[in-house]
């Protein structure tokens, strides 16, 4: 029986006997590390999303026990992610917590359908600049919102209001002793997150997020600080399966847009995470279509339970690989530890300060911003850097869905512009000084890809040709020409030649 369980969890490179037992021991140890990393992140994402803390744990449990068992990627770990926090918060504010299950359920079903249709691999075609811009925009809005939670203050709803409200927040905090205490706890949490990995021995025993939360929680209890704690409902009380009235909301255009945003962002983040995790280990590579279906199955279950949407999370996945995980057993076991913790120790959540979780998310939001990549990207691929910045800015100014759409449209336009390379070759200009040369037409050959994006350049080059010579336009060298460009070139040539003939006729009538 034991060997059959090991065989079920063993990856493609696994072996039987003592090697299998050794791999299981490594997975067992790695699962504990991932569990310790996941607890504060699951709770923090839930609180920042405006839902009960237990819903974050439920999503983490489903990510381990459901998605973790399915084929796709063997070592990446799924759960609630900071990347969807802003979108979930907006959805909860607009439609209520009860509607969250429907949104997540339909998103999961869409992911299952896309995986079954073989669309998973196509997510690799999404511009990296758009994805980085999306994460940067999420990070900026997440940081702006959690700055308020650091001081136990309520954040405005929109991204711009959060940013513009920071000066007023500073004034309110400066005049409140309780707010300053909460801020000190939150800033201390961020400091531990930054400094803890430098203590290598301690970091091996206790992951930085758990160390930061534990120290801040202990300090709050010891000094009896009057700051807000996480509200606890209990695991079963937090589950809110969607009902018929929530499904009726799918008729609204805004709800459909939110579902599509959930689907697009969760899928892209999961599959980009899979590509990153594959670079961290030498085991089996990810099957993108199967992984997309695994994420869809997990989100469908989360939707039925009324929990948060899930994605593959690079922080937990990297911790899993670095802890020595060999097979998917580690991520399944991490889900089991989360379930045991949520059932046996739910009251432990109630002693965690909200400012501490805000500090964890401010740090996570900062890690989403590609600060180290932006300058090199500007130097080597300026257009990609512009797409990144515009996507991030659009998310802050508008919302997640519209910002990503703007970024995708910019990426498509940039690609179309770069691929529309055209070259104009003119023959016959060298004969312009000979007798009767004006009677000979110029042969103009256009090569490459002619689209409406390059039409101004083409017309400028044609306008620079001698006005007294007729033009023979040759488009046979074009690999592609769109209708707008073809019509414009033909019209210009016809008018140009008509003017040349008219001027020549007038000259013949005028006596010498």
Automatic annotation (TrEMBL):
Transmembrane stretches in the record are 28-48, 55-75, 95-119, 126-151, 179-196, 247-266, 336-366, 386-413
Compartments, as annotated in UniProt = Membrane
Q: In which broad location class does this protein mainly occur, judging by the first location in its UniProt entry? A: membrane
Print the keywords alphabetically: Membrane, Transmembrane, Transmembrane helix
Membrane topology qualifier = Multi-pass membrane protein
Q: Provide an example Pfam family for this protein.
A: Sulfate_transp
According to UniProt, the name of this protein is: SulP family inorganic anion transporter
- Source lineage: Bacteria, Bacillati, Actinomycetota, Actinomycetes, Kitasatosporales
